[in-house]
Write a structure and sequence with these properties.
5 strands; 31% strand; alpha+beta; Alpha-Beta Plaits; 5-stranded mixed sheet; binds flavin mononucleotide
């Protein structure tokens, strides 16, 4: 079984393109080494990410992310186990989405990302990551 962890975190400064590039390069290199796959979505200052792989490796990476100064706060939404990886081809897939497109997709009017995340059940967030 594959262990997965879904969390969200808020940026501690405004990310520019070079910051995303640097982050993804670092993440993909370590994920490759630890056989971790997943998806990272950035929406208006908030990152939503799912990490999947061996339980200890995923927890180690999450501990690094939690201590990462590029984020001011992180919170685990859910953890679980699946038969197969959702993101088997991705050492870390990445996309940016706007709150407008989430609201349109979900037929909602959330005023900000935190409002959306705190009201969305974990399965909905997971589906959003899979869809993006
Ligand atoms: C939003 C965000 C997502 C990240 N995703 C990953 C990831 O998927 N894999 C990873 O190894 N590091 C990721 N990192 C980087 C880690 O926080 C950390 O800097 C890196 O793993 C090196 O950890 P270490 O200094 O404890 O060795 C991410 C950082 C941020 C801010």
């Amino acid at each position: 079984m594959i262990f997965y962890l879904l969390y969200y975190g808020v940026q501690s400064f405004k990310f520019e393109q070079k910051d995303f590039d640097e982050l993804l390069e670092q993440a993909r290199e370590r994920n490759e080494r630890l056989d971790i796959t997943g998806k990272l979505v950035y929406c208006e200052g908030t990152f939503i990410q799912v990490l999947e792989g061996d339980e200890q490796n995923v927890k180690d990476v999450y501990n690094s992310i939690e201590a990462d100064r590029r984020l001011i706060a992180t919170r685990i939404v859910t953890i679980g186990r699946v038969e197969q990886r959702y993101f088997s081809g991705w050492r870390m897939d990445f996309d940016k989405v706007s709150l407008d497109s989430i609201n349109e997709l979900e037929n909602c009017t959330h005023p900000n990302v935190t409002d959306y995340i705190s009201n969305a059940p974990a399965i909905k967030l997971l589906k959003l990551l899979i869809k993006q």
